[in-house]
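Can anyone check this?
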Amino acid sequence: MNKRIAIINGHPDPESFNAGLADAYAVGATRAGASVRAINIGELAFDPNLRYGYRKRMELEPDLVAALDTIRWAEHLVWVHPVWWSGLPAQMKGFIDRLFLPGLTFQYRTNSVWWDKLLTGRSARIITTLDQPFWYYKLAFGNPSVKQLKRGVLQFCGVNPVRVSYFGPVRNATEGQLISWLSQVEQLGYQYR
């Protein structure tokens, strides 16, 4: 049976290196026989501001409904994003705020501190780019963007295991290094990892 993979590109620029990484993963996964669907957050039409918190539900725009259908369809979620100011791009954060909601991806239990994880049975790969070496990002800043996405969002909603690949520094990378990273990500796709 073919694996169902959703590739979620969090970089708003369709010509970014992140878009290239997302495409490379798709090429590898398709070559291995997977069914692949892409979500390019920068191309979606939605309000990224969760205006009322959880007090009042905002209606999901059609692009968010389609994205949720793709996430529910997938067995493996691949998130591709840059690290900006130690965090996620604003529109990607808004996508998560608007879509990863009680009743959709998790559910609070009545009179309890516990919750039900509604995305169990899925795995994930986070592919993130940096303008500094990973070891520096981890030591100096504590790796906040990956902790937020991996632990605070995906594992909170039941996605497990979540593996992470870091690529950087991108800013000063040679063309040969960029090509090598694209090849590595294509191989990850081919292995469904």
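Reply from J.R.: I decoded it. The chain has one domain: 4-190.
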